């Protein structure tokens, strides 16, 4: 795969710069542009990095030709100067670092990436926890862990549910969304103010997925999730789907504190299906607010679907819905089991941190 023609190499280099020096972004755009298909191979990160380095040093993506000329900018002295400055002020912009060293920004970027092997790590954004949120998260973690200790099959009986908007532009609008997919896009895309979208609901367990369910009217136009529509979905879609999982007895059901979920009629409809086994704002186990890191849909499902659905960009809403359905059906059973099992680790970390953010999870320690 590495023996590619000049046009392909040039495209990969161009995408590297377009995606803010992202090797993963260049791979993804290469895959999309050349329509390689689901199993098509893209150039390796090492190959793209080599092409970029050759291009910056020689103006060509081909193999470097020895010139015998010494480096005029990326000297050992400049490399050491950049290293010292970055260690002193790691949040300082490349533009200011370049001004301090008195070399171009492109030269500083090359020194950082190729000579020092530094990487521009991003600050991870999480929801601000209010005063009582830590205690609510801690109590929730302790209660669920107690249930797990009393019933070692508790996690296998758990359904976690949520909704998300999938836009044709490739944007997943989830107010609590905190999962990153296979790669970090690091790109900016223009999109309409009111982009075409579908609203998707799913429930996830270690045994499978119920869904997707698309909230839309008779004309197949996406509509807002209200308590009436939520109850209708529970009665006409979820109730029959549960019959496909006869092995799950006394299942627990979780949803977040959205108004459509916690209205009286919604809670009543959930209890008709799950009795006194409801995890909700007004449920048998209170769901803590601002806790996407404890929901399988948030920390796994939506990010996974985003990384798969938009591999080939859907052109219509019907195609988008079809891609979502296909990818949900294709989720491997062992992946679901690992994701639900990961909840156990997150609960333990939540308790250890007294309800604070899961730092070891965020930074994969």
UniProtKB/TrEMBL annotation:
Gene Ontology MF, one: nucleic acid binding
Record-linked InterPro entries: DUF4817 (IPR032135), RNaseH_sf (IPR036397)
Alphabetical list of Gene3D superfamilies matching this protein: Ribonuclease H-like superfamily/Ribonuclease H
Ranges for domain DUF4817: 7-60
Protein name (database record): DUF4817 domain-containing protein
Lineage, top ranks: Eukaryota, Metazoa, Ecdysozoa, Arthropoda, Hexapoda
């Amino acid at each position: 795969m590495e023996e590619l023609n000049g046009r392909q190499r040039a495209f990969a280099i161009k995408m590297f710069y377009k995606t803010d020096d992202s090797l993963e972004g260049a791979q993804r755009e290469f895959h999309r542009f050349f329509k390689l298909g689901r199993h098509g191979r893209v150039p390796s990160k090492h190959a793209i990095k080599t092409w970029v380095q050759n291009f910056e040093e020689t103006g060509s993506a081909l193999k470097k030709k020895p010139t015998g000329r010494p480096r005029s900018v990326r000297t050992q002295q400049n490399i050491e100067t950049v290293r010292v400055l970055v260690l002193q002020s790691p949040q300082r912009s490349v533009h200011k670092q370049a001004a301090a060293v008195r070399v171009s920004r492109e030269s500083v970027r090359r020194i950082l990436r190729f000579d020092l092997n530094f990487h521009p790590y991003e600050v991870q954004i999480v929801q601000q926890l209010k005063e009582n949120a830590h205690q609510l998260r801690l109590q929730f973690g302790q209660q669920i862990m107690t249930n797990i200790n009393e019933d070692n099959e508790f996690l296998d009986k758990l359904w976690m549910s949520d909704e998300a908007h999938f836009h044709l532009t490739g944007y997943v609008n989830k107010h609590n969304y905190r999962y990153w997919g296979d790669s970090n896009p690091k790109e900016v895309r223009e999109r309409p103010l009111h982009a075409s979208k579908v609203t998707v609901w799913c429930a996830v367990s270690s045994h499978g997925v119920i869904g997707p369910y698309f909230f839309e009217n008779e004309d197949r136009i996406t509509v807002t999730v209200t308590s009436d529509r939520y109850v209708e979905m529970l009665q006409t879609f979820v109730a029959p789907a549960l019959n496909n999982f006869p092995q799950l007895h006394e299942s627990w059901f979780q949803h977040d504190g959205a108004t459509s979920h916690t209205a009286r009629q919604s809670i009543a409809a959930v209890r008709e299906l799950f009795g006194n086994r409801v995890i909700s704002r007004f449920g048998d186990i209170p769901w803590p607010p601002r806790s996407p890191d404890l929901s399988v849909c948030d920390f796994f499902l939506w990010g996974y679907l985003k990384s798969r659905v938009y591999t080939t960009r859907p052109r219509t809403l019907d195609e988008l819905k079809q891609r979502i359905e296909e990818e949900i059906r294709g989720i491997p059973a062992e992946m679901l089991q690992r994701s639900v099992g990961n909840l156990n680790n997150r609960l333990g970390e939540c308790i250890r941190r007294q309800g604070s953010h899961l730092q070891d999870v965020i930074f994969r320690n």
